Amino acid sequence: MVDAGDDAPDFSASLVTDDIEPFRLSEAIGDGPVVLAFFPAAFSSTCTDEMRTIRDEFDRFPEACTVLGVSTDLPHALAAYREEYGLPFGLVADPDHRAIEAYDAIAAFEGYGVDAVARRSVFVIDTDGTVTYRWLADGHGQEPDYAAVADAAAATTN
């Protein structure tokens, strides 16, 4: 399990912004803190509440901070989701489970015929590639302390 103080595991996936392009976490590290907000499924109620709250609190994050939502959804689904909710940050499509496995942020989801989805969790990574903050949901519907996440990101820039 990745914890605060550990080196951030690298992974590759697709990044959904205004376009869809290849993404490697190690290439995003160095300019400012990186926030990885793992969420189970686009368009689901709690996930949408979480992503909209991050959107609405986006100005609390340092200017150089890279905020990324990460789910196992396909890139085109995340593109539609990002557009529908006006998300100002990128979404990482991880259908191959590279990111959720690297961070051990896996939740079972057999009830829908899906092996696994992202466990709702948040990791803050500093410019040296060290995890400085970790939060893991303990149950269904639980959301992170958004102020604590923003504060953790800000603390890495001091």
- Average pLDDT rating: 92
Strand content of the residues, in percent?
25-35%
User: Distance between the terminal alpha carbons, to the nearest Å?
Assistant: 27 Å
Roughly what percent helix?
Answer: 25-40%
- Structure annotation, total helices: 5
Number of domains: 1
Q: How many beta-strand elements?
A: 9
Structural category is alpha+beta
CATH architecture: 3-Layer(aba) Sandwich
Can you tell me the overall shape? globular
Query: Superfamily at the CATH H level?
Result: Glutaredoxin
**Main sheet attributes: strand count, strand direction, barrel closure:** 7 strands, mixed
Organism: Halorubrum halodurans
Pfam families: AhpC-TSA (PF00578)
Active site: 47 (cysteine sulfenic acid (-soh) intermediate)
Protein name: Peroxiredoxin
How is this structure best described in words?
- 26% of the residues lie in helices and 28% in strands.
- It is built from five helices and nine strands; from the N terminus they run E-E-H-E-H-E-H-E-H-E-E-E-E-H.
- The strands form two sheets. A seven-stranded mixed sheet has the order 2-1-5-4-3-8-9.
- With 158 residues, the chain is an alpha+beta fold.
- The model has no long low-confidence stretch (mean pLDDT 92).
- The radius of gyration is 14 Å and the shape is globular.
- The relative contact order is 0.24.
- The protein starts with 11 loop residues before the first strand and ends with a helix.
- It has a single domain, classed as 3-Layer(aba) Sandwich (Glutaredoxin), CATH 3.40.30.10.
- InterPro entries: AhpC/TSA, Peroxiredoxin_AhpC-typ, Thioredoxin-like_sf, Thioredoxin_domain, Tpx_Peroxidase_subfamily.
- One of its GO terms (molecular function) is antioxidant activity.
- The active site is at 47 (cysteine sulfenic acid (-soh) intermediate).
